[in-house]
Specification:
Layout (H helix, E strand, L loop, with lengths): L1 H57 L4 H48 L4 H49 L1
Helix pairs in contact: 1-2, 2-3
Length: 164
């Protein structure tokens, strides 16, 4: 019975980091999707900017459109960088939590008491998870600012069309 109790103790100690591993996996998946959409947007805006510059050689370019597209491209680039940093952080966090699971198992099996290593890994993983969350919040705020800028531009554009 003591052996079963010890085994259950090891499994329960390993369970908490496993939940954090699952949470990191979910964040990695959603951040990866956000990054893919951001990169698609970056390519789309870059293509529109190239088309705008090509039109400039054949007709009078619209400086407002060029400025708007340049601003949109800058938003997309900044978002992609933030998301890439968040992805790096989340992957590192995932590795640390997996390392803590392995260290719990190894230390319990070998009867070595190194609780400070497990605690250190857990704190480091939690701090990195917090930092990744801050990066994702910043990216969301930047995405909102991007939509606000685009909406303001479209309102100005439609107001000019209504006057003409």
């Amino acid at each position: 019975m003591a052996n079963l109790s010890g085994t259950l103790s090891i499994l329960s100690a390993m369970f908490t980091p496993a939940i954090l591993v699952s949470a990191c996996g979910s964040l990695i998946l959603t951040t990866s999707q956000r990054l893919a959409r951001s990169l698609d947007r970056q390519r789309e805006v870059a293509q529109l900017l190239r088309q705008n510059q090509q039109q400039a050689t054949t007709s009078t370019p619209d400086p407002a459109e060029h400025g708007h597209l340049s601003q949109q491209l800058l938003f997309a680039i900044r978002r992609a960088r933030l998301l890439q940093h968040a992805m790096n952080c989340l992957h590192l966090t995932l590795s640390i939590f997996i390392g803590s699971i392995l260290s719990i198992g190894v230390f319990e099996l070998t009867n070595i008491s190194r609780a400070w290593i497990i605690a250190g890994l857990s704190v480091m993983g939690a701090l990195l998870l917090l930092y990744a969350s801050v990066l994702l919040i910043r990216e969301s705020s930047l995405a909102r600012a991007d939509v606000d800028e685009e909406t303001a531009y479209l309102i100005r554009f439609t107001a000019k069309s209504d006057v003409a």
